[in-house]
Automatic annotation (TrEMBL):
Sequence ranges assigned to domain C-methyltransferase in this UniProt record: 255-409
Domain Methyltransferase putative zinc binding: 13-74
Organism field: Candidatus Harrisonbacteria bacterium RIFCSPHIGHO2_02_FULL_42_16
Gene3D superfamilies cross-referenced by the UniProt entry: 6.10.250.3100, Methyltransferase, zinc-binding domain, NAD(P)-binding Rossmann-like Domain, Vaccinia Virus protein VP39
UniProt-listed InterPro entries: Methyltransf_Zn-bd_dom_put (IPR013630), Methyltransf_Zn-bd_dom_put_sf (IPR038576), MeTrfase_14 (IPR013691), SAM-dependent_MTases_sf (IPR029063)
Name assigned to this protein: Methyltransferase
Length: 415
Protein backbone atom coordinates (compact mmCIF):
# COMPACT_ATOMS: atom_id res chain seq x y z
CA UNK A 1 0.00 0.00 0.00
CA UNK A 2 1.41 3.40 -0.94
CA UNK A 3 2.20 5.67 1.97
CA UNK A 4 -0.24 8.49 2.68
CA UNK A 5 2.53 11.07 2.87
CA UNK A 6 3.49 14.51 1.57
CA UNK A 7 6.31 14.66 -1.00
CA UNK A 8 8.14 17.46 -2.80
CA UNK A 9 9.65 20.81 -1.82
CA UNK A 10 9.48 21.65 1.90
CA UNK A 11 7.99 25.10 2.36
CA UNK A 12 7.62 25.13 6.13
CA UNK A 13 9.24 23.52 9.15
CA UNK A 14 8.23 19.89 9.56
CA UNK A 15 7.68 20.39 13.30
CA UNK A 16 6.55 23.98 14.00
CA UNK A 17 5.36 25.05 10.49
CA UNK A 18 7.59 28.15 10.42
CA UNK A 19 7.96 29.24 6.77
CA UNK A 20 11.34 30.97 7.06
CA UNK A 21 13.88 28.15 6.77
CA UNK A 22 17.59 28.98 6.52
CA UNK A 23 19.97 27.10 4.22
CA UNK A 24 22.75 25.38 6.21
CA UNK A 25 24.51 23.01 3.82
CA UNK A 26 23.84 22.74 0.06
CA UNK A 27 24.75 19.29 -1.27
CA UNK A 28 23.31 19.88 -4.72
CA UNK A 29 21.19 17.30 -6.52
CA UNK A 30 21.88 13.72 -5.45
CA UNK A 31 20.55 10.26 -6.21
CA UNK A 32 18.59 8.27 -3.61
CA UNK A 33 21.24 6.34 -1.66
CA UNK A 34 19.43 3.00 -2.03
CA UNK A 35 19.02 3.18 -5.83
CA UNK A 36 21.68 0.60 -6.68
CA UNK A 37 21.94 -0.45 -10.31
CA UNK A 38 22.27 -3.69 -12.22
CA UNK A 39 24.84 -3.83 -15.01
CA UNK A 40 22.07 -3.35 -17.58
CA UNK A 41 20.75 -0.25 -15.78
CA UNK A 42 24.11 1.48 -16.10
CA UNK A 43 23.02 2.47 -19.62
CA UNK A 44 19.79 4.08 -18.41
CA UNK A 45 19.10 7.62 -17.09
CA UNK A 46 19.21 8.29 -13.33
CA UNK A 47 17.04 10.93 -11.66
CA UNK A 48 18.58 13.20 -9.02
CA UNK A 49 16.72 15.20 -6.37
CA UNK A 50 17.56 18.32 -4.32
CA UNK A 51 19.62 17.56 -1.20
CA UNK A 52 20.01 20.63 0.98
CA UNK A 53 20.15 20.86 4.76
CA UNK A 54 18.08 23.69 6.24
CA UNK A 55 17.51 25.07 9.73
CA UNK A 56 14.35 26.36 11.39
CA UNK A 57 15.29 29.43 13.48
CA UNK A 58 12.06 29.10 15.50
CA UNK A 59 12.25 25.55 16.92
CA UNK A 60 15.83 24.70 15.91
CA UNK A 61 15.06 21.66 13.75
CA UNK A 62 17.58 20.75 11.04
CA UNK A 63 15.81 19.25 8.03
CA UNK A 64 15.91 18.66 4.29
CA UNK A 65 14.23 21.08 1.91
CA UNK A 66 12.83 18.29 -0.29
CA UNK A 67 10.91 15.13 0.66
CA UNK A 68 11.34 12.19 -1.65
CA UNK A 69 8.44 9.86 -2.38
CA UNK A 70 8.82 7.03 0.19
CA UNK A 71 8.33 4.46 -2.57
CA UNK A 72 11.51 5.85 -4.18
CA UNK A 73 13.51 6.35 -0.99
CA UNK A 74 12.54 2.89 0.29
CA UNK A 75 11.97 0.72 -2.77
CA UNK A 76 10.26 -2.62 -2.32
CA UNK A 77 13.50 -4.40 -3.27
CA UNK A 78 15.53 -2.78 -0.48
CA UNK A 79 19.29 -3.54 -0.41
CA UNK A 80 19.80 -3.34 3.36
CA UNK A 81 19.55 -5.86 6.19
CA UNK A 82 20.10 -4.67 9.77
CA UNK A 83 21.12 -8.18 10.82
CA UNK A 84 24.34 -7.88 8.76
CA UNK A 85 25.71 -5.00 10.86
CA UNK A 86 27.32 -6.25 14.08
CA UNK A 87 27.12 -2.83 15.73
CA UNK A 88 23.35 -2.72 15.22
CA UNK A 89 22.78 -6.28 16.41
CA UNK A 90 24.62 -5.53 19.68
CA UNK A 91 22.75 -2.25 20.11
CA UNK A 92 19.36 -3.90 19.53
CA UNK A 93 20.06 -6.67 22.03
CA UNK A 94 21.08 -4.16 24.69
CA UNK A 95 17.95 -2.08 23.96
CA UNK A 96 15.70 -5.10 24.52
CA UNK A 97 17.47 -5.81 27.82
CA UNK A 98 17.16 -2.17 28.91
CA UNK A 99 13.45 -1.83 28.12
CA UNK A 100 12.58 -5.14 29.76
CA UNK A 101 14.13 -3.99 33.04
CA UNK A 102 13.24 -0.28 32.85
CA UNK A 103 9.53 -0.93 32.26
CA UNK A 104 9.07 -4.37 33.86
CA UNK A 105 7.85 -5.94 30.62
CA UNK A 106 6.04 -9.27 30.74
CA UNK A 107 5.30 -11.97 28.11
CA UNK A 108 1.77 -10.60 27.59
CA UNK A 109 3.09 -7.19 26.52
CA UNK A 110 3.13 -6.27 22.84
CA UNK A 111 6.23 -4.67 21.30
CA UNK A 112 5.87 -3.00 17.89
CA UNK A 113 8.82 -1.89 15.78
CA UNK A 114 8.22 0.71 13.06
CA UNK A 115 10.52 0.20 10.06
CA UNK A 116 11.47 -3.20 11.44
CA UNK A 117 13.55 -4.30 8.43
CA UNK A 118 14.49 -7.99 8.85
CA UNK A 119 13.20 -8.18 12.45
CA UNK A 120 16.60 -8.10 14.16
CA UNK A 121 15.45 -5.76 16.94
CA UNK A 122 12.22 -7.65 17.60
CA UNK A 123 14.10 -10.95 17.84
CA UNK A 124 15.55 -9.77 21.16
CA UNK A 125 12.07 -9.20 22.59
CA UNK A 126 10.74 -12.44 21.15
CA UNK A 127 13.56 -14.35 22.83
CA UNK A 128 12.29 -12.93 26.12
CA UNK A 129 8.82 -14.36 25.40
CA UNK A 130 7.04 -11.14 24.50
CA UNK A 131 4.56 -10.64 21.70
CA UNK A 132 6.15 -8.79 18.80
CA UNK A 133 5.03 -7.17 15.56
CA UNK A 134 6.98 -5.40 12.83
CA UNK A 135 5.80 -2.73 10.39
CA UNK A 136 8.02 -2.80 7.28
CA UNK A 137 7.05 -1.79 3.71
CA UNK A 138 9.97 -3.39 1.85
CA UNK A 139 10.94 -6.97 0.97
CA UNK A 140 12.95 -7.10 4.22
CA UNK A 141 9.59 -8.02 5.78
CA UNK A 142 9.75 -11.34 3.92
CA UNK A 143 12.98 -12.20 5.74
CA UNK A 144 11.41 -11.33 9.09
CA UNK A 145 8.29 -13.40 8.45
CA UNK A 146 10.39 -16.38 7.36
CA UNK A 147 12.24 -16.06 10.67
CA UNK A 148 8.91 -16.15 12.54
CA UNK A 149 8.87 -12.44 13.38
CA UNK A 150 5.29 -11.38 12.50
CA UNK A 151 5.56 -8.36 10.19
CA UNK A 152 2.98 -6.23 8.41
CA UNK A 153 4.37 -5.40 4.98
CA UNK A 154 3.06 -1.84 4.70
CA UNK A 155 3.97 1.78 5.43
CA UNK A 156 2.61 3.03 8.74
CA UNK A 157 -0.62 4.94 8.13
CA UNK A 158 -4.16 5.19 9.56
CA UNK A 159 -5.42 2.04 7.84
CA UNK A 160 -2.43 -0.01 8.98
CA UNK A 161 -2.84 1.22 12.56
CA UNK A 162 -6.55 0.39 12.58
CA UNK A 163 -5.89 -3.18 11.35
CA UNK A 164 -3.12 -3.72 13.89
CA UNK A 165 -5.04 -2.48 16.94
CA UNK A 166 -8.05 -4.57 15.97
CA UNK A 167 -6.01 -7.76 15.61
CA UNK A 168 -3.25 -7.31 18.20
CA UNK A 169 -4.41 -4.59 20.60
CA UNK A 170 -2.29 -1.68 21.86
CA UNK A 171 1.46 -1.80 22.34
CA UNK A 172 3.28 -1.35 25.63
CA UNK A 173 6.45 -0.48 23.73
CA UNK A 174 6.78 1.06 20.27
CA UNK A 175 10.27 1.39 18.85
CA UNK A 176 11.51 3.35 15.85
CA UNK A 177 15.25 2.95 15.47
CA UNK A 178 16.81 5.00 12.68
CA UNK A 179 13.42 5.55 11.06
CA UNK A 180 11.75 8.25 13.18
CA UNK A 181 13.54 10.87 11.07
CA UNK A 182 12.65 9.08 7.82
CA UNK A 183 8.86 9.31 7.76
CA UNK A 184 7.15 12.43 6.29
CA UNK A 185 4.07 14.16 7.68
CA UNK A 186 4.93 14.48 11.37
CA UNK A 187 1.37 15.19 12.60
CA UNK A 188 0.09 11.99 11.00
CA UNK A 189 3.05 10.00 12.27
CA UNK A 190 2.69 11.14 15.90
CA UNK A 191 -1.06 10.52 15.85
CA UNK A 192 -0.51 7.02 14.44
CA UNK A 193 2.00 6.26 17.21
CA UNK A 194 -0.40 7.59 19.87
CA UNK A 195 -3.21 5.41 18.49
CA UNK A 196 -0.97 2.31 18.61
CA UNK A 197 0.32 3.00 22.11
CA UNK A 198 -1.26 1.77 25.35
CA UNK A 199 -2.23 4.38 27.96
CA UNK A 200 0.99 3.92 29.93
CA UNK A 201 2.99 2.68 26.96
CA UNK A 202 6.35 4.08 25.92
CA UNK A 203 7.55 5.23 22.52
CA UNK A 204 11.30 4.79 22.08
CA UNK A 205 13.15 6.28 19.13
CA UNK A 206 16.80 6.22 18.14
CA UNK A 207 18.04 8.76 15.62
CA UNK A 208 21.39 10.19 14.69
CA UNK A 209 22.04 13.01 17.12
CA UNK A 210 22.70 16.48 15.79
CA UNK A 211 25.43 17.13 18.36
CA UNK A 212 27.28 13.99 17.23
CA UNK A 213 26.93 15.03 13.60
CA UNK A 214 28.56 18.41 14.22
CA UNK A 215 31.18 17.09 16.65
CA UNK A 216 32.41 14.52 14.11
CA UNK A 217 31.54 16.46 10.93
CA UNK A 218 29.20 13.67 9.82
CA UNK A 219 27.74 15.47 6.82
CA UNK A 220 27.64 12.09 5.06
CA UNK A 221 24.59 11.22 7.18
CA UNK A 222 22.63 13.77 5.13
CA UNK A 223 20.64 11.91 2.49
CA UNK A 224 17.03 11.71 1.29
CA UNK A 225 16.05 8.97 3.75
CA UNK A 226 16.82 11.32 6.67
CA UNK A 227 14.27 14.11 6.53
CA UNK A 228 15.11 15.52 9.97
CA UNK A 229 18.24 15.75 12.14
CA UNK A 230 17.20 15.80 15.75
CA UNK A 231 18.36 17.63 18.80
CA UNK A 232 16.21 17.54 21.95
CA UNK A 233 14.70 21.04 21.96
CA UNK A 234 12.74 20.52 18.71
CA UNK A 235 11.68 17.04 19.87
CA UNK A 236 10.43 18.45 23.16
CA UNK A 237 8.42 21.03 21.20
CA UNK A 238 7.03 18.26 18.98
CA UNK A 239 5.85 15.94 21.74
CA UNK A 240 4.39 18.78 23.81
CA UNK A 241 2.40 19.91 20.76
CA UNK A 242 0.68 16.51 20.62
CA UNK A 243 -0.08 16.13 24.31
CA UNK A 244 2.92 13.92 25.05
CA UNK A 245 6.01 14.26 27.22
CA UNK A 246 9.64 13.62 26.34
CA UNK A 247 10.27 11.79 29.61
CA UNK A 248 13.87 10.68 29.17
CA UNK A 249 16.79 10.68 26.72
CA UNK A 250 20.34 9.41 26.48
CA UNK A 251 23.23 9.60 24.06
CA UNK A 252 24.32 6.26 22.57
CA UNK A 253 27.18 5.27 20.28
CA UNK A 254 25.08 3.59 17.55
CA UNK A 255 25.38 4.87 13.96
CA UNK A 256 28.25 7.19 14.78
CA UNK A 257 26.43 8.86 17.68
CA UNK A 258 22.66 8.78 18.27
CA UNK A 259 20.05 10.02 20.70
CA UNK A 260 17.68 7.55 22.34
CA UNK A 261 14.43 9.27 23.30
CA UNK A 262 11.57 8.02 25.51
CA UNK A 263 8.11 9.61 25.19
CA UNK A 264 4.73 8.90 26.78
CA UNK A 265 1.18 10.16 26.36
CA UNK A 266 0.00 12.91 28.71
CA UNK A 267 1.85 15.30 30.98
CA UNK A 268 4.52 13.46 32.95
CA UNK A 269 7.73 14.20 34.88
CA UNK A 270 10.85 14.76 32.81
CA UNK A 271 14.22 13.29 33.73
CA UNK A 272 17.23 15.39 34.72
CA UNK A 273 19.07 13.80 31.78
CA UNK A 274 16.80 15.59 29.31
CA UNK A 275 17.31 18.95 30.98
CA UNK A 276 21.08 18.46 31.11
CA UNK A 277 21.30 17.49 27.44
CA UNK A 278 19.26 20.52 26.37
CA UNK A 279 21.62 22.78 28.34
CA UNK A 280 24.57 21.15 26.54
CA UNK A 281 22.88 21.77 23.18
CA UNK A 282 22.36 25.44 23.94
CA UNK A 283 25.96 25.81 25.10
CA UNK A 284 27.30 24.14 21.94
CA UNK A 285 25.89 26.88 19.70
CA UNK A 286 23.73 24.67 17.44
CA UNK A 287 20.82 27.10 17.83
CA UNK A 288 22.99 29.96 16.52
CA UNK A 289 23.12 30.87 12.82
CA UNK A 290 26.87 31.70 12.98
CA UNK A 291 27.62 28.16 14.13
CA UNK A 292 26.25 26.72 10.88
CA UNK A 293 28.22 29.11 8.70
CA UNK A 294 31.38 27.69 10.26
CA UNK A 295 30.09 24.12 9.87
CA UNK A 296 29.66 24.64 6.13
CA UNK A 297 33.26 25.84 5.82
CA UNK A 298 34.52 22.78 7.71
CA UNK A 299 32.60 20.46 5.38
CA UNK A 300 34.10 22.05 2.28
CA UNK A 301 37.60 21.83 3.76
CA UNK A 302 37.15 18.12 4.52
CA UNK A 303 35.87 17.49 0.99
CA UNK A 304 38.88 19.19 -0.58
CA UNK A 305 41.37 17.47 1.73
CA UNK A 306 39.91 14.03 0.96
CA UNK A 307 40.05 14.67 -2.78
CA UNK A 308 43.68 15.79 -2.44
CA UNK A 309 44.57 12.46 -0.78
CA UNK A 310 42.70 10.41 -3.39
CA UNK A 311 44.25 12.30 -6.31
CA UNK A 312 47.75 11.95 -4.88
CA UNK A 313 47.28 8.18 -4.49
CA UNK A 314 46.08 7.89 -8.10
CA UNK A 315 48.99 10.05 -9.27
CA UNK A 316 51.34 7.50 -7.66
CA UNK A 317 49.63 4.75 -9.66
CA UNK A 318 48.12 3.08 -6.60
CA UNK A 319 45.01 0.91 -6.66
CA UNK A 320 42.12 2.26 -4.56
CA UNK A 321 39.01 0.40 -3.44
CA UNK A 322 36.26 1.02 -0.92
CA UNK A 323 35.11 -0.90 2.14
CA UNK A 324 31.37 -1.11 2.90
CA UNK A 325 28.75 0.39 0.62
CA UNK A 326 26.57 2.05 3.24
CA UNK A 327 23.92 4.69 2.65
CA UNK A 328 26.18 7.36 4.10
CA UNK A 329 28.99 6.30 1.77
CA UNK A 330 26.83 7.15 -1.24
CA UNK A 331 26.38 10.72 0.02
CA UNK A 332 30.14 10.96 0.57
CA UNK A 333 30.93 9.60 -2.90
CA UNK A 334 28.27 11.67 -4.66
CA UNK A 335 29.20 14.95 -2.95
CA UNK A 336 32.95 14.55 -3.47
CA UNK A 337 32.67 13.10 -6.99
CA UNK A 338 34.65 9.98 -6.09
CA UNK A 339 33.38 7.54 -8.73
CA UNK A 340 34.52 4.41 -10.55
CA UNK A 341 37.44 6.33 -12.04
CA UNK A 342 38.90 6.52 -8.52
CA UNK A 343 37.67 3.35 -6.77
CA UNK A 344 37.94 0.04 -8.63
CA UNK A 345 35.26 -1.58 -6.46
CA UNK A 346 33.71 -1.56 -2.99
CA UNK A 347 33.83 -4.60 -0.72
CA UNK A 348 30.75 -5.72 1.20
CA UNK A 349 30.25 -8.44 3.79
CA UNK A 350 29.30 -11.83 2.36
CA UNK A 351 25.52 -12.16 2.10
CA UNK A 352 24.90 -8.47 1.37
CA UNK A 353 22.14 -7.97 -1.23
CA UNK A 354 24.26 -5.16 -2.74
CA UNK A 355 26.93 -7.55 -4.04
CA UNK A 356 26.77 -7.70 -7.84
CA UNK A 357 25.19 -4.25 -8.10
CA UNK A 358 26.66 -0.78 -8.77
CA UNK A 359 26.54 2.32 -6.57
CA UNK A 360 24.02 5.02 -7.57
CA UNK A 361 25.53 7.74 -9.73
CA UNK A 362 29.15 6.80 -9.10
CA UNK A 363 28.74 3.33 -10.69
CA UNK A 364 31.31 1.52 -8.54
CA UNK A 365 30.88 -2.28 -8.57
CA UNK A 366 30.00 -3.82 -5.19
CA UNK A 367 31.80 -7.11 -4.56
CA UNK A 368 32.48 -9.62 -1.80
CA UNK A 369 35.09 -8.10 0.53
CA UNK A 370 37.23 -11.22 0.07
CA UNK A 371 38.33 -9.69 -3.25
CA UNK A 372 40.25 -7.07 -1.26
CA UNK A 373 42.16 -9.80 0.55
CA UNK A 374 42.87 -11.70 -2.65
CA UNK A 375 44.23 -8.77 -4.70
CA UNK A 376 45.69 -6.58 -1.90
CA UNK A 377 45.10 -3.07 -3.34
CA UNK A 378 47.44 -0.41 -1.94
CA UNK A 379 44.61 1.68 -0.38
CA UNK A 380 41.17 0.98 1.08
CA UNK A 381 38.77 3.89 1.61
CA UNK A 382 36.79 3.09 4.78
CA UNK A 383 33.49 4.69 3.83
CA UNK A 384 31.73 3.56 7.04
CA UNK A 385 34.40 5.44 8.96
CA UNK A 386 32.21 5.83 12.06
CA UNK A 387 32.96 2.14 12.75
CA UNK A 388 36.37 2.36 11.13
CA UNK A 389 38.35 0.96 14.07
CA UNK A 390 36.26 -2.21 14.07
CA UNK A 391 36.41 -2.57 10.28
CA UNK A 392 40.17 -2.09 10.10
CA UNK A 393 40.75 -4.72 12.78
CA UNK A 394 38.55 -7.18 10.88
CA UNK A 395 40.41 -6.52 7.63
CA UNK A 396 43.81 -6.97 9.28
CA UNK A 397 42.62 -10.22 10.82
CA UNK A 398 41.42 -11.36 7.38
CA UNK A 399 44.88 -10.64 5.96
CA UNK A 400 44.77 -7.18 4.34
CA UNK A 401 48.28 -5.64 4.33
CA UNK A 402 47.75 -2.26 2.64
CA UNK A 403 46.84 1.21 3.91
CA UNK A 404 43.47 2.66 4.94
CA UNK A 405 42.01 6.06 4.10
CA UNK A 406 39.67 7.48 6.75
CA UNK A 407 37.57 10.21 5.06
CA UNK A 408 36.16 12.11 8.06
CA UNK A 409 36.20 14.17 10.20
CA UNK A 410 39.82 14.86 9.14
CA UNK A 411 40.80 12.89 6.03
CA UNK A 412 43.94 10.85 6.70
CA UNK A 413 45.91 7.76 5.72
CA UNK A 414 46.45 4.98 8.28
CA UNK A 415 49.30 2.56 7.60
Amino acid sequence: MKSEQFVGAVKKCQICSNKNLELVLPLGHQLPVSSYLTKKQLQEPEITYPLNLCRCPKCGLLQLDYILDPDIAFPFIYPYRSGLTNMLVKNFRSLADLLEKKYNLTPKDLVIDIGSNDGTLLQGFKDKGMRVLGIEPTDAADVANKNSIPTVQEFINKKTVAKITKKYGKAQIITATNVFAHIPNMPELINNIKNLLAKDGVFVSESQYLLAIVEKLEFDTVYHDHLRYYSLKPLQYLFNSFGCTLVDAERISAAGGSIRVFAMKGKRPQSDRVKKLIREEEKSGIYDKKFWNQFRKQVMTAKNDLLAIILQCKKEGARLVGLTSSARSNTLLGFTGINNQFLNYIGEKKGSPKIGLFTPGTHIPVVDEQKIIKYQPEYVLVSSWHIGEELMKVMRKMGYKGKFIIPLPKPRIIK
